[in-house]
User: Fold this.
Amino acid sequence: MIYNRYMTIKINDPHIAFILQDEIRRSEESRYDHRLHAVLLVAKGMSCPEASDYLGDPERTLRQWINRYTKDGLQGLVENEHPGRPSRLTSKQLEHIGLVLRSKPEKYGLIGAIWDGKLLSAFIRKEFGITLGIRQSQRIFRQLGFRMRKPRPLIAHDNPEVQ
Assistant:
């Protein structure tokens, strides 16, 4: 087999570039490599607009990566933490909620057989004076290692006398 050193691969699907860019953005390690490639292209003489167009990133982003590399070296290309919004509940409150979820809602004056997002939201409002949405309350279940259960209808118990 003869290899042509200038061989070009043609991919006719225009969406492939988007799929590949999404894959690059998927992991922290690949994003670091991507920033490293951007700096390398500019170091090899490619202008920021050319490298930006080539890699599919905004020119301003490339300039920020170059500046971070110039200022801090390779460490400047490492991704910073994205802490997100601070929790409205303290770790002590979350610990208390973890204990509460191990018992029935009726014990805390709530009507319901099992805990769900709506009941937990009501409990948090009543106990701590903090209003959380149902979805945020459902996230707390997962955060504390609980899984959401749905009540099963009577028919699911398969009692022939009842049916």
About this structure: The radius of gyration is 27 Å. The mean pLDDT is 85. The helical segments are 16-26, 28-43, 48-55, 59-72, 91-100, 117-128, 134-143.
